[in-house]
Fold this protein.
Amino acid sequence: MSREYETIGEIAERLNMPEATAKRLLDGLLPSNLIRQRLSGGSEEYRLGPFIVGWGEAILARVPYDREFGDLVQQYLEEGGGERIFAPRPGVLGVVPVRGSLKKELIQPYDDIDAHFARYERFWVADCVCRIGETVRGSDCDKPVNRCAFVGLPPQTPLSEHVLSREQALELFTELEQQGHVHLGFYGFVATAESPQFVGSCNCCGDCCGILRAINQTGLAEGPQRSNYRAVLGVENCIACGGKCVEHCQVHAISLDAKGIAIMKRERCIGCGLCVISCPGGAIELEPVSKEEWFDVPTSLEDWEERRLKTLGTMQ
């Protein structure tokens, strides 16, 4: 299969099998997100699914995440698979600055977390597949497990462990920000939004997140799609607090000099804003990148794929 949609008849003919058998096989793959389906002219059509949000969660829903599976995933990332997935721009997920780190006039629709929470009364919150996987592999990370997605749901959806009210969701989301989680936002088309807007995010730490670990542990220059902002330090306002910003930075983009003053490493900064909200002296702020560096958020799956294909074509 390819990224072009095909009918059941076309796929069955190529595979030399009955249409009923082909449909059964294809429908069985849908929950894993390995393929995608659409209705066109009253007929079902299928195409290959890209590596995008939800693949790991779909696998976890069907089979236990055991040590062997976790080790295989890590081996795949270290031996080049991570570079092929995470390095091409646009990224699989995009960094969204945490609330309070951006000046109001700078907030774009795809950065507007508060607007997302105002749109819905119920939110689906998922267990972090990376956190589960790293725990199985022996990690001692003490961050919460139930911390990802925050996707809006219809108001009549019954509350449960993973379906939270707006008040519950906001409380948890705020706690995650204060603990130092990076928001890796989903592109709007993932949740069928009509325009680029914040529709939910993974909430990630550098210990567990496969995308952040691609930077921290495997040496990739790129991991998540960076935001359109970078942290800037006003040295005169740094109070040498002992490194709150260093503690919260999940990609090791900040260090301290001999006097305890923060040193910002712009080339590593992903623009998450965690250092901004954690700085007791108010010495750090996010500033927009240059016009040349500015990232236009994809408006559709096709737009995202086309741009990634161009990037892949330039990679060795």
Summary: DSSP finds eleven helices and 13 strands in the chain. Residues 190 and 316 are 29 Å apart (CA to CA). The first helix runs from residue 8 to 15. The radius of gyration is 21 Å.
